[in-house]
Amino acid sequence: MVRYYSNLAEASEDSSQIFFVMSNAFRHLGRGQTLEAIQHFQQALAIAQEQNDTLKSAHIAKQLGLVYMDSEDYSSASTHLQLALDYYQQLNNPEEVLAILEYLKNVYIEAKDVPQLLQLVSGFQDIDNPREQASTLYSIGYILEQQNQPELAILFYKQYVNISEQLRSDSQPMPTANQGICDEENPFEVYRHLADLLLRSDRVLEAQRVLDLLKVQELAEYLQDVQRNSDTQEGIANRPPEQQIQNELQALIDRTIVIQRELYNLRNLATLTSEQETRFIELTSESRQLGQAFIAFWDSQFVQGQVALLRQTTGGESLDLKNYKILQEKLAELDQNAVLLYPLVLEERLELVLVAPGAATPIRETVTVNKRDLNEAIAEYRSILQTPYRNYLPSAQYLYSLLLEPLADELDALGAETIIYAPDGQLRYIPLSALHDGEQWAVEKYRINNITAASLTNLDRLPQQEPTVFAGALTESRTVPVGDRQFVFDALPFARQEVENLATLVPDTRKLLDDEFSPDTINLMGRYSIVHLATHASFMPGDEENSFILFGDGTPISLKEVANWPLNNVDLVVLSACQTAVGDSLGDGREILGLGYRMQQAGADAAIASLWSVSDGGTQVLMDAFYAALNNGYSKAEALQRAQRALITGDETVLAGERGVTIELIDTHTGQPLHQSTNLDHPYYWAPFILIGNGL
Length: 696
Known about the structure:
Elements: H1 8-12, H2 16-30, H3 34-50, H4 54-70, H5 74-90, H6 94-111, H7 114-126, H8 130-146, H9 150-169, H10 189-200, H11 204-223, H12 240-267, H13 274-297, H14 301-313, H15 321-333, E1 338-345, E2 349-355, E3 363-368, H16 371-385, H17 393-403, H18 408-414, E4 418-421, H19 442-445, E5 447-450, E6 469-473, E7 478-482, E8 485-489, H20 493-505, E9 509-513, E10 530-534, E11 537-538, E12 548-550, E13 556-558, H21 559-562, E14 572-575, H22 590-602, E15 606-610, H23 616-631, H24 636-649, H25 683-686, E16 689-693
Parallel strand pairs: 1-4, 4-5, 6-9, 6-10, 10-14, 14-15
Antiparallel strand pairs: 1-2, 2-3, 7-8, 11-12, 12-13, 15-16
């Protein structure tokens, strides 16, 4: 309790009578005698009011409101906090005004008083505090959802999301949302919950939009400086009935602001003329009427009619068809029979949302699986993938049954050949290519490229005709301090051969080894279409500053600094490192999103990186195959697919193309040709590398 009263003794020092009464109030509070304390607070308030001491009256009214709040007497708490608000407004004290509004918000949340919370929205809007405005809108949505009014809850969650998108454009913190769904550390979980609620309401088109915004917000939380673009700035649109409700509410809010401002000005006048007194009475009456209008709003025929319309049209919505059709057009223009797959991991189920050029709305499938069980399966399979002798099929088939089998008929009907994949949570730690249907790997059927978010990815920019390569390699061991940690990196003996083979396949290659490959060479990268870095890298969950790429001279460059690299003319950045794209433990995969976004932010169309520590020699074989296919005219996504198929089957002919580029693939562990190799078909060797971004 003491934390509420720190400034009251100072405010009471010049009034021995008030000080004496307040001392008794605090003494009773300390003894747990709340009723006696309240009586003394009320006595002190009466004295301050009799003395016309606005400051003391404000402080004491606030204390009374907080004591009532702790006693769960929310009606009395509201009355006294409102009184304190009036006093602080007269004193023109914006800090205390904001504090009282926040206290009132907590009171109305506890009381589940939606009309009063709506009036608070006008208060936060009036003082230009969009964070608290959004937080209050979220609380309204939460209460309405608990009252089994999901249609109205969705409307208020949408407003929270849209204000959050506006705040991000101004590099401001996310609004808090620490009630029920999530905590202050992860307010963007409102996005996840909104997508969940929309999917449960069969509003798949809107859910897909929110899922994309969720990817952006997760990325922004990790990198801190992700800005809105012309796509994300629109947020999530309202459906017509929702917009009608919001318009009516906004009219009430706007009128409330006008009245309160005029009342505030009149209260601050020393004396009122007869006309001003009449006007004051009129405004006070209208203010009460507006309060009643907020109370009556929810049960009004108008609102219930709009909610009925929302229920009637659910599933066939057209509000966001413009954005959806643009996305469909982008997929169609790729001319790769491409679809876009969004999984959403929820506590008791997995939602799969598929966007395809030929589908009127996104396709949705629901899989019943507990989040904990799913994450355990992911962790187990990831462990298997990192060990080249373990049996992978049971895990590979189980995860296939969750992620791809539910959509298998739709994918076949659509003739899908390319899956553009926006994984969620810990799904980011396993490659979709390494799922198995019992007969073949997913990569044997589909080209697969990951994206950060559709709204942040240029999917259709074509690569340069003839590849040119900047190839930097680290071949020696290094000990590198990063932050408060020491990283010891082994030598990469095959890295030299890797870039030598690359130079053979692509004659226009600039090779830089060890000390030659220093940060001073960064400015050279933009002259080439491909930047190939055969070096160590570590991308850590939680802190972008501790994620880095190691140059040949032993200098680590943080992921944040990558955004300043001159990669505007670069089609592809390849990190064929020993430890790329993940840290020491599984988080939620945002560091993988971060890598892809930083490369795109610097100007590159795409990046290739690995999801676990890879075999140095195995990497060389895969890279040789990849560049052979790429140099034969295949797209980035198809070149990676064909390289992986070559290691799976031992058949190098899948790399052949019109340009006739060939290379003999040698298993570096045995010295034998690929077709005689007996172990490179394990996904440990071919599956770690993922393509992030534009797959053309």
